[in-house]
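Internal ticket #5521
Category: modeling
Description: The requester needs a full-assembly model to guide mutagenesis choices. All entity lines are attached below as received. Residue total reported by intake: 683.
Assigned to: D.W.
Attached entities:
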Amino acid sequence: MNRLLALTWKEFLQLKRDTMTLRMIVMVPLLQTLIFGYAINYDVKHLRTVVLDESRSFESRELVARMTGTGYFDVVKHVDTMKAMQAEIDSARAAVGLVIDADFGKDRHRHAPAQAFLIVNASDSTTSSQAMSIMSGISQKMSIEVLARAGGWKHKAMPVDLRVRPWYNPDLRTSRFIIPGLIAIILTFTLIQFTATAIVRERERGTLEQLQVTPATRAELILGKIMPFIVIGYFQFTLAVLLMRFLFKVEIMGSVLELYVVGFLFMAAVLGLGMLISTVAQTQMQASQMSMFFLLPFVFLSGFVFPIAGMPKIFQWLSALVPAKYFIDVIRGIVLRGSSLMDLWRPATLLATYTFLIITLAVMRFKKTTA
Amino acid sequence: MSTLIQVRNVTRRFGTFTAANDVSFDVPRGKVFGFLGPNGSGKSTTIRMLAGLLAPTSGSITGFDGLDVARDTEQWKSRLGYMSQKFSLYLDLTVEENLRFFGRIYGLTAGQTRARIAVLSERLRFTGIMDQLTEGLSTGLRQRVSLAAALLHEPELLFLDEPTGGVDPRGRRLFWDLIYELAADRGMTVLVTTHYMDEAEQCDTLAFILDGVLIASGSPRELKHDLAGRILEVRPEGDPFALLTRFAGQPSIEDAYLLGLTVRTVAADGGPSELHRLLSAFGSPEPAEPSLEDVFVSLARRRVRSREVVTV
């Protein structure tokens, strides 16, 4: 126990002198939470829209008014020719173009299909699909109103009234969805790299060998490396949770204690991965590059941004190797839905199993490469 | 003379490569034991097995009155100190922090550690630099601090793995004086690997390893005994290089090489008189004392020849 404390004390002394790593410990969670929290937003409002209104009628102006009334579109310009419209969209000054047919007003009265078309910049798929769905909603609503009147429907309300209740995120804020997952990503990002490079550095400099000729056991050496990083991990975890709660106003509906308990499992898994990298990498540079190599697939296959259910089968299987996947399931459950660990027993058990396996593997590999 | 460590039939394989092959020797208590061999000879592998860093594929290493390195690894390690050629203190810690850390690792109390640091820093003359980061120290100072770290817990056996690499001759001299002093007044056993023959010359016992096989062991005097009376030197009038080429392949000459302008020859087994006759044609041959270098060159050549016979 005294030896373990000595190893931990030594690690913190080294950290105290390593200003670069100290800065990373604080700045990575701070900046990433701020950047991702503010920047990732699927709910794209105020799309810059250019209008070519060939009809110049009451009806065409009504269409434009309904469109801007949703808040999703801002008309930035009216143009007179198709050429001018194309110039606006080519130059990305506008993302959406609405062209209203010259006979739009007349056709409305004649009960002929009144025609308009919407141009979207589909090189940005999120924005364009949102613009398309909102506009088709508007046109359907207008059509139904006309049909209802023609069919003699006298009531104010529509015959079927289906309303959507977005539970757990009633105002559909992206940050509520992003930030809990982001915490898992931040911990993955920093902790894998810190452990991998810390162990490789000791091997490179010969201090690991010096430790191995001392009576310190392998378990003590491994725990002495892991414990300081668990402390650092909890510090970053707390920093990110505080930002989430007080800056982004995402309330934690479930138990904070349970969050910290599962956090331990997750951090241990990530540290195990860092150790695994350290048994393969020869230099600190290699360790750092290998950590980066793992990071991107970890972000994409964790369900942090892209839903795993939408992935091809092979990637769904691969995502089982990503510890952040289980932790994100748990943290979203606790923070957003107020679930207890009993509700979340499946991802929590999978995470615990994963942690156990990865640590066992890392210890076995560590044994092989050092003894 | 009692034995501290017994190495018996130790073999270590890495895949199909045999780094140490059936090695057996004793390390006598309280002596300076030199372990010699070129790079890649299996010297480091053997030392690492003795230090408990590497498990033998087969064979046994016992010592310290009944401990077995494989079974009592933790106790075994607490009895030895280890200083490697690589500077292995933490560069980003101060001298004192490094020593306090290793003191705690070896289970010393804070008071014991402080007392030991005071004694060792005095003796190894680095009292003034306790608060400096070891990164900024000269090679000689670093070496002394590493030695102090290895001696904190008063080990019975001190491993020195090429301890004087990169140290100037004066520094080497001082370092060795210190090692002998420590060995003498504490009865500590020292196991050292080295490339330098003058350092080997001062060891009490030597073991020479080549291609993973222990090919000779004994005191420097015992090792030289075999070559006694077989070294002849001649200072030719003409080109000494030309002489060397003429000597090549002569059955009465085991080895010939230049020492300045002098040609030093080693007679083949039982042929010193024939060699004397041969050399007389080029000058007046003088007998010379064999050096350890002669011994090891001769041993290595014999080993190479015997292997060639086997492979032919």
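Resolution: model delivered.
Comment from assignee: The mean pLDDT of chain B is 85.
Ticket closed.
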